[in-house]
Design goal:
Blueprint (H helix, E strand, L loop, with lengths): L1 H25 L3 E9 L6 E4 L9 E6 L12 E8 L2 H8 L11 E12 L4
Parallel strand pairs: 3-5
Antiparallel strand pairs: 1-2, 1-4, 2-3, 4-5
């Protein structure tokens, strides 16, 4: 009986921690690999031909301090960052309303890693 109590006591915090990690990942940092292009609005970039499932184009509307995407235009890169809501994206792009940003995936870039100097 004592062994059962100890097993339950050890398992409970472990499963609570696992649930917490899932929630953190869902709204947290993620990475995407694709071809970096200059965006259509000032100070924005676009990641095209994004690999994997999900959006094939991502608008990069904010960059963390120290992140410089300009030297990587035309390169295949992996960006790491967080999703940005439509209101924030519209403001960053100087758009008049969030309506035109709906249905698009926007990100704030925290880090960039060059994969290749050429894009497919």
């Amino acid at each position: 009986m004592f062994g059962l109590i100890i097993a339950v006591a050890i398992a409970a915090p472990a499963s609570a921690g696992a649930k917490g990690q899932k929630r953190a990942r869902a709204g947290g940092t993620h990475s995407m690999t694709g071809c970096l292009q200059k965006g259509t609005e000032g100070n924005t970039y676009t990641l095209t031909s994004v690999e994997g499932t999900g959006p094939k184009t991502v608008e990069l509307v904010q960059m963390a301090s120290g992140v410089n995407l300009a030297p990587h235009v035309g390169h295949k890169v992996t960006i790491t960052g967080t999703a940005v809501n439509t209101k924030t994206a519209a403001k960053a792009e100087g758009a008049t309303g969030k309506k035109e940003e709906r249905g698009e995936h926007h990100m704030k870039v925290d880090a960039v890693k060059m994969v290749s100097t050429t894009c497919p």
